[in-house]
UniProtKB/TrEMBL annotation:
Compartments where located: Melanosome; Membrane
Name of the protein described by the UniProt record: Amino acid transporter
Keyword annotations: Acetylation, Glycoprotein, Membrane, Phosphoprotein, Symport, Transmembrane, Transmembrane helix, Transport
Molecular functions per Gene Ontology: L-alanine transmembrane transporter activity; L-aspartate transmembrane transporter activity; L-serine transmembrane transporter activity; L-threonine transmembrane transporter activity; symporter activity
Sequence similarity: Belongs to the dicarboxylate/amino acid:cation symporter (DAACS) (TC 2.A.23) family.
A GO cellular-component term linked to this record: melanosome
Principal location listed in the UniProt entry: other
Transmembrane segments: 48-70, 90-110, 122-144, 222-239, 259-279, 299-322, 328-351
Region span, Disordered: 7-33, 500-534
Phylogenetic placement of the source organism: Eukaryota, Metazoa, Chordata, Craniata, Vertebrata
Membrane topology, record value: Multi-pass membrane protein
Length: 534
């Protein structure tokens, strides 16, 4: 047996010499395979939420298609939508603390110069992109002509022929300004000011009775987000102005903000389940989709094409022109909030996940994202502007009205201005279409057609809305970092110049040399201490 062992050992040594080269590649392959597996696991761990969210949307479509054949009643559909309703309620719950705290801490953390500069750039970006979106929608409306030859659609689709009369254009703009300054901050958290009308009977001298419409102030259900945004901004600036006294309150709002973001992180893991049931229940609810698409297909196509062009080409081009960075890589980190926007149709409900993802995935400075995104979710509505302008052109063509340049200009301006006041909730833009129609003198009784397809178009509308906010935050973050680097460079140059100047003064200035001479004479008694000082 000893001989066999020795022989085996000899063979092993010889074999090691022969197979050393063969074992090397095998070990290398195993190492590469292990590293690939680890990389794959890391990728899945990092992007688990994105993959789950996208899977939730796909599963929702499959669930809706499967359950649609079961002919569920309204009660059963409501039960099916319950998990999705919970998601919406949770997201809306964190909107108020998130908006107020993030804006107060954001405004207080930026110095007045940066605040004014960034605010000005943001305002120009918001207005510019919304005007571009409105112009694109009107142009597409004239090219595609979605309303041509579609006159009797209300009767075909069995929709109500008229909706209640809308507000006057002037009252709509006055309401917007009134809501900027809420009379009661607590009430602003759940109520909004809206003008209503009362009909007053007036007797004329000739005996004929006439009715006069008188505006009356009223409060309607819904958060007055505009008023809260303005108050939070001003409060943040005031706390910054207080200096030492305001620091405790700024720290309180910062802590509150961070705690809210932790809540958002927890809610985000429920998003895939909620989205699945939201999408599924919406598919089950659909009436006759084939008739809807065949009769209003051109309008749906024109609106979605406008959103694709604006969101897929124009906004990324603006981002690239401003930052010289790849916009699609930036958007890749925002798949979760974009999917949430698609499912919930609410830019306000998407705000929590947008703030979380833009900071963690894209490295946007907290001060920028928490200052600009809440304002963007309220003010910047590119998708809504496209939707409203397209609807106005569609209804004009439906009623065989040729729009003149004055009316087109009115549509552009009114859509840009009224999208500021559009509520960040599902179907919030339909009310602002009524304002546009009133402004150009068109009847509002065809609005029911817009409502019929709103649930389809509103999804891409919300995605474009939140995409515009995110790219705006990316541009501001880039400009802020660039400005910071330039200032640091200037400070370095100033410091170098100061050092050089101090040396030259010491060598050339007669005052300094005189001073040195005096000190030298006074310190002749102790030359060692002088040397140590030197």
């Amino acid at each position: 047996s000893m001989e066999e062992a020795a022989a085996a050992a000899g063979e092993g040594k010889a074999g090691h010499g022969r197979n050393g080269q063969a074992e090397g590649p095998a070990a290398e392959e195993r190492r590469v395979g292990g590293s690939r597996l680890r990389g794959c696991r890391g990728f899945l761990r990092r992007n688990a939420l994105v993959l789950l969210t996208v899977s939730g949307v796909v599963a929702g479509v499959a669930l809706g298609a499967a359950v649609r054949g079961a002919a569920l009643g309204p009660a059963q559909v409501a039960y099916l939508a319950f998990p999705g309703e919970l998601l919406l309620r949770m997201l809306r719950m964190v909107i108020l603390p998130l908006v107020v705290c993030s804006l107060v801490s954001g405004a207080a953390s930026l110095d007045t110069r940066s605040l004014g500069r960034l605010g000005g750039i943001a305002l120009a970006y918001f207005l510019g992109t919304t005007l571009l979106a409105s112009g694109l929608a009107v142009a597409l409306g004239f090219i595609i002509r979605p309303g041509a030859g579609a006159s009797a659609l209300n009767t075909q689709l069995g929709l109500p022929s008229a909706l209640p009369t809308s507000k006057e254009t002037v009252d709509s703009f006055l309401d917007l300004i009134r809501n900027l300054f809420p009379a009661n901050l607590v009430a602003a958290a759940f109520r909004t000011y809206a003008t209503d009308y009362r009909m007053l009977l007036k007797n004329t001298t000739s005996g004929n009775a006439t009715w006069e419409k008188i505006p009356v102030g009223s409060e309607i259900e819904g958060m007055n987000i505009l008023g809260l945004v303005l108050f939070a901004l001003v409060l943040g600036v005031a706390l910054k102005k207080l200096g030492q006294e305001g620091e405790d309150l700024i720290r309180f709002f910062n802590s509150f903000n961070e705690a809210t973001m932790v809540l958002v992180t927890w809610i985000m893991w429920y998003v895939p389940i909620g989205i699945m049931f939201l999408v599924g229940s919406k598919i089950v609810e659909m009436e006759d989709i084939v008739l809807l698409v065949t009769s209003l297909g051109k309008y749906i196509f024109a609106s979605i094409l406008g959103h694709v062009i604006h969101g897929g080409i124009i906004l990324p081009l603006i981002y690239f022109a401003a930052t010289r960075q790849n916009p699609y890589r930036f958007l890749l980190g925002l798949i979760t909030p974009l999917a949430t926007a698609f499912a919930t149709c609410s830019s306000s409900a998407t705000l929590p996940s947008m703030i979380k993802c833009i900071e963690e995935n894209n490295g946007v400075d907290k001060r920028i994202s928490r200052f600009i995104l809440p304002i963007g979710a309220t003010v910047n509505m590119d998708g809504a502007a496209i939707f409203q302008c397209m609807a106005a052109v569609f209804i004009a063509q439906l009623n065989n009205v040729d729009l003149n340049p004055g009316q087109i200009f009115t549509i552009l301006v009114t859509a840009t201005a009224s999208s500021v006041g559009a509520a960040g909730v599902p179907a919030g833009g339909v009310l602002t279409i009524a304002i546009i129609l009133e402004a150009i003198g068109l009847p509002t009784n065809d609005l029911s057609l817009i409502l019929a397809v709103d649930w389809i178009v509103d999804r891409t509308t919300t995605v474009v809305n939140v995409e515009g906010d995110a790219l705006g935050a990316g541009i501001l973050n880039y400009l802020n970092e660039k400005d910071k680097k330039e200032r640091e460079q200037e400070l370095k140059e100033v410091a170098v110049e100061a050092v050089a100047n101090s040396k030259s003064e010491a060598e050339t200035s007669p005052l300094v040399t005189h001073k040195n001479a005096v000190s030298n004479t006074s310190s002749t008694a102790d030359p060692e201490s002088k040397e140590s000082v030197l």
